[in-house]
Each structure stands twice: as structure tokens, then as C-alpha cells.
Design goal:
One of its GO terms (cellular component) is periplasmic space. It contains 15 helices and 11 strands. The chain is 44% helix and 17% strand. It has helices spanning 12-21, 55-63, 65-70, 85-94, 104-112, 157-168, 183-192, 204-212, 233-238, 240-259, 261-272, 276-284, 296-311, 318-326, 332-335; strands spanning 44-50, 75-81, 99-103, 117-126, 129-133, 149-152, 177-180, 197-201, 215-218, 227-232, 286-287.
């Protein structure tokens, strides 16, 4: 086992990648060439993301399972941090990464808008979003958001969570002033009093609760879409063996986390820069013991969220969303996953 508390490969190089992933400009490493489909003829590169909202990715990176399994085949593994689903989708669309982790709703939105991605694995069922206010806020529920300034990262699960939450009080985004800020910036704006509420995302949300006394005034796990792993279609066509290796590693990590919960908690705390207790809260709100095979369960959730894309003007028509959902899942990799 590599040194989790010292972060092993998540040391200086990992922190550098973190800085790149959270660059406000959205800059990312140059797009990786697809290389040859024959590992014996030409070196290949596997470029994928890691994210604090995806604890399995942190374990796979730290343990260097992919580097160990694929290095002998001439494959170089490169990691890029995604600061949110919107960034992961941006990297996937631009070819900066071949595999990236997002919320299910973000994956559907991206495919509805022409991004050539497929969901190959479901990594978690998280309760990772909530409507958050400051400790002294007079806001006690969603209805109180009318006319208020609310921070959210558009194109991500907290944003779609917010839209659904507003609907429970008969409100829409037209009834609030929406501040489109990246997740960490949304928390900073809430702390500074520049917004009245924030559509939060763990582990940043859990840290806001523990460190600043922030309060979650609306919480509903049913309004969160699943955490999913997406791959570019050209990558799946050219390198199915590498895609399978990644999914295999995810299933290995799924079993590793509950068996090594203290180490997994320490790892999340170190990478996210949060207190171990906050990391424990985050992992406690993240269900990993689920089927990794994308399909009807996720589709049922996304069928409820999809119409919001059209209502909010994110997608032109419902037919486009329906077509994207019908072609979003590629279950074969998770069905064949071998975590050994």
C-alpha cells in the first residue's frame, strides 16, 4: 500500500494538478492524442480526472493501480483535477481528458448539447447537495429565497438540485438572482455575505457547516443525480481495453474504501484541505454500495431532471433530451468489471 497519509503520488505533483483543475479560466493540459490502439507498437496515454466529489478517484490515483497495471503495456497515465461537473464536461468535450466524473444530470446535459460521451460506470449515490445559508441567516426554507441572491454552479448537480428545490415552493430561477460561481467560490461568497444562499456541494458544504456554522435549510437525496463516470466515444472505440481497466479500478476502489475507511477519510481530508471529521461527514453522505451498471435506475432520476434543461433554456427541445438519454449509457464495461 502506498502512503495515504503522506499522499504518495498526491504530493507535489498532485497539488500542482489541483491548482490546474481549479483555475478560474478553466484551463487544462493540452488534449492527449489517441495514440495507437496497439500497445505493442506505440506508447499510449490515458488521461482521466480526479475530484474531491469522487472519493473513488482519489483512492485509484493514490494507490497507483492504473500505473501499475498499465505501465508494462506502454501506457502513460495522466491525472487532471475537475473542480466540478461543469469542468469535467468541459475537459471531456475539448479532449483534454478521455474519462471524467460528473453528476448524472451533468452528463445528460452535456450529451444533450452534443458532447460525445457515454456513462460507463456509476461510482456513487451521494447526498452531496443542499441549499445552504449562513449561521445567522433569517432564511429557514426554500420559500424565503424569493428575491434573494443565490450562488450555484450552472451545469452541475447543485444547480439542478436548486431548480428542483425552488419548484417545491412554487418558485423558479426567475424568482431569485442567480450568481453563477464555481463551488468553492460560492461558499466564499456566502461566508463574505455577498450572497444570501448557496447551492452547496460536498465536501465544501460539509466544511462550511463545520467551520463557519453554515446551515442546510433544504435537503433531499431524491433531487441528487448519481455520480457517474463518463468516457469519450472515440476513446471507447479506439481503446476499449483502457476503458475496461479504469472501470475495473473503480470497482476495486469501491471495495477498498469501506475496508480502509480511516485511510480513505484521511486521504479525502488531505486532498480537499479539510478537517478529517468533515471528510468523515462527506463520506457518510456518500453511498458507494450500489450497482455500478448504468441503466434504468439512473434513467428514472434523469427523466425527472431532463425537462428542467428545456424549461431553463439549456437545451432547445425535449426531443433532444430524450434522444440523449436513450443513448447515454454504455453498461458493458461495468457488467464485465473485474476488481481483482
Amino acid at each position: 500500500m502506498l502512503g495515504l497519509l503522506a499522499l504518495g503520488p498526491l504530493g507535489a505533483a498532485g497539488l500542482s494538478a489541483c491548482a490546474q483543475g481549479e483555475d478560474a479560466s478553466g484551463a487544462a493540459p493540452a488534449a492527449a492524442g489517441s495514440g495507437s490502439s496497439s500497445a505493442g507498437q506505440q506508447a499510449r496515454k490515458l488521461t482521466l480526472d480526479f475530484a474531491t466529489y469522487n472519493p473513488l478517484s482519489l483512492v485509484i490515483k493514490d494507490q497507483e493501480w492504473l500505473e501499475t497495471d498499465l505501465g508494462g503495456q506502454g501506457v502513460t497515465v495522466e491525472w487532471v483535477q475537475s473542480a466540478g461537473s461543469n469542468k469535467a464536461n468541459e475537459f471531456l468535450r475539448n479532449g483534454n481528458i478521455q474519462i471524467g466524473s460528473t453528476a448524472g444530470a451533468a452528463a445528460l446535459l452535456a450529451r444533450s448539447n452534443g458532447s460525445p460521451i457515454k456513462v460507463v460506470d456509476v461510482f456513487s449515490q451521494p447526498n452531496w447537495s443542499g441549499v445552504v445559508v449562513g449561521k445567522d441567516s433569517p432564511i429557514t426554507g426554500v420559500a424565503d429565497l424569493r428575491g434573494r441572491r443565490v450562488a450555484a454552479t450552472t451545469g452541475t448537480d447543485p444547480y439542478f438540485f436548486l431548480v428542483q428545490a425552488l419548484g417545491t415552493a412554487g418558485l423558479t430561477t426567475a424568482d431569485i438572482t442567480l450568481e453563477n460561481l464555481q463551488h468553492a467560490d460560492g461558499r466564499a461568497a456566502l461566508d463574505a455575505g455577498n450572497v444570501d444562499a448557496w447551492a452547496g456541494l460536498d465536501p465544501i458544504m460539509a466544511a462550511a457547516q463545520a467551520e463557519g456554522g453554515a446551515k442546510i435549510v433544504y435537503d433531499n437525496i431524491a433531487f441528487n443525480s448519481y455520480g457517474v463516470l463518463n468516457a469519450r466515444e472515440d476513446f471507447l472505440a479506439e481503446h476499449p481495453d483502457l476503458a475496461q481497466a479504469v472501470v475495473n479500478a473503480y470497482e476495486k476502489a469501491r471495495a477498498w474504501v469501506p475496508a480502509n475507511l480511516e485511510a480513505a477519510t484521511a486521504l479525502l481530508a488531505q486532498v480537499a484541505g479539510i478537517d478529517p471529521q468533515v471528510a468523515a461527514t462527506t463520506l457518510g453522505r456518500t453511498k458507494l454500495d450500489i450497482s455500478p451498471v448504468p441503466g434504468a435506475t439512473q434513467a428514472a432520476v434523469l427523466e425527472e431532471i431532463g425537462p428542467l434543461f428545456v424549461a431553463n433554456g439549456d437545451v432547445a427541445d425535449q426531443g433532444t433530451v430524450d434522444e440523449a438519454l436513450s443513448t447515454l449509457f454504455e453498461p458493458a464495461y461495468a457488467q464485465k468489471a473485474d476488481p481483482s
